[in-house]
Amino acid sequence: MTLQPEFSKWQGLGNDYIIVAVRDLAFEMTPARAAALCDRHWGIGADGILLWGGTEAAGFTLEIFNPDGSTAEMCGNGIRLLARCLVDHGFATEPTLAVNTGAGLIAPTVAPDGLVRVKMGVARLGGSGVVGYDGVRAESEAAGQKLEACGGEFEFTFVDMGNPHCVIETADLSAIDLEIVGPAIENHQLFPNRVNVEFMKVMGPSDVSMRVWERGVGETSACGTGACAVAVAAYRTRGVKSPMTVSLPGGELQVEVDPKLNVVMTGPAAEVYSGTLSEEFINRLKEL
Fold first, then answer.
1. 281 lies in the same domain as 247
2. Do 261 and 169 have their domain in common?
3. Within this chain, do residues 7 and 84 fall inside the same structural domain, yes or no?
4. What is the pLDDT of residues 57-108, one digit of tens each?
5. Which one of the listed residues 38, 85, 166, 223 is annotated catalytic?
6. Is 195 a residue whose pLDDT tops 90?
7. Would you call 38 a catalytic residue per the annotation?
8. Which domain holds residue 256?
9. Given pLDDT bands bounded at 50, 70 and 90, which one contains residue 241?
10. I need a surface site. Which of 33, 49, 67, 168 has the fewest CB within 10 A?
């Protein structure tokens, strides 16, 4: 026997999410239930949950849950996936949507070829997401700052894309032990709300490659806000030209950055499958 809620599983460059409407839930979403749903052995399996509400007329809402049960303000891949899901499934009739997120109002546009173009807003270098060793918040640009982790020193640029990012340039992406360095920097004392960690390598005048350790998730094949943060750091500190191609393990995103640090991201979104949760699994979730 199967019951609601219906859900869709979507991926963008291999970064996968469960998409479900608030009205379809047979239970309240909690950190423990989100973690159970994202578990790849006992649940559906995903890099996160996109819980949406609202309507096209009133505006959509998006809440993002990570696999560890924590929440995120914004997700670049997630907003692309949600936009195409809402358009493809008839919840939105216009290609451009208004989605209220923890990082503010985001307006993705679904193109006829299925690519999704997202105006990500204005990036900031610095702000309350990074704190100096003396406890003073870095309200000015936080570029070329240094931190110590795992017995080494890293020079980083802090980029606020509505969620926090620590971008570090490296000469060899493959040499980075992200399973060790990632969590150490994510939970570093400099970052009061933890941080997403990106290692980048400039490949050409308009090309950057990267790896990402996502806050509350781990290493993923792609991260939309991470790609935008890398593009901003490369544009501001290394003079990489916009528009640029950002290459991730899962594929490429196109990112535009202007002199005022307005950011636009374009990339794919694809449905994997849709389904329903079993009564047995829903009852297990309700016990958590």
1. no
2. yes
3. yes
4. 999 999 999 999 999 999 999 999 999 999 999 999 999 999 999 999 999 9
5. 223
6. yes
7. no
8. 122-266
9. very high
10. 168
Assess whether 97 and 8 both reside in one domain. Answer: yes
**In the chain, how many domains are there?**
2
Mark whether 75 is an active-site residue.
yes
Q: Is 149 helix (H, G, I), strand (E, B) or coil?
A: strand
CATH number assigned to the domain comprising residue 82: 3.10.310.10
List 83's β-bridge partners, or say none: none
Residue type, 239: G
Set 75, 85, 166, 228: catalytic member: 75
Q: Do 90 and 191 reside in the same domain of the chain?
A: no
pLDDT digits (tens, 9 = 90+) for 20-31: 999 988 889 999
**For range 125-144, the mean pLDDT:** 64
The tokens of 247 are what? 């290459």
CA 199 – CA 229 distance, rounded (Å): 11
Q: Please name the helix (run of DSSP H) or strand (run of DSSP E) that holds residue 50, with its range, or none.
A: strand 49-55
Q: 76-88 and 224-238 helices cross at what angle (nearest 10)?
A: 130
pLDDT at 97: 97
